[in-house]
Amino acid sequence: xxxxxxxxxxxxxxxxxxxxxxxxxxxxxxxxxxxxxxxxxxxxxxxxxxxxxxxxxxxxxxxxxxxxxxxxxxxxxxxxxxxxxx
Length: 86
Fold this sequence. Notes:
mainly alpha; Chromosomal Replication Initiator Protein Dnaa, Chain: A; 5 helices; 71% helix; 0% strand; globular; DnaA_C
């Protein structure tokens, strides 16, 4: 996700509220929830020591944004395709 958005990997683990960092962090949480069996608490712990409720909010936010922003949906699908190849 960081590579796709041209961000340093450590940036999504920070408390930064810059839009590009927040969106990358939310997408990382969304994809982790969607593609793994990890609990929201574990995902939150791995991505910047966030609370499980933050992970749930991120997943809902990204899901809702995808419904109206087809560019975002395409970006997420592209990232997911790359991840599945690994």
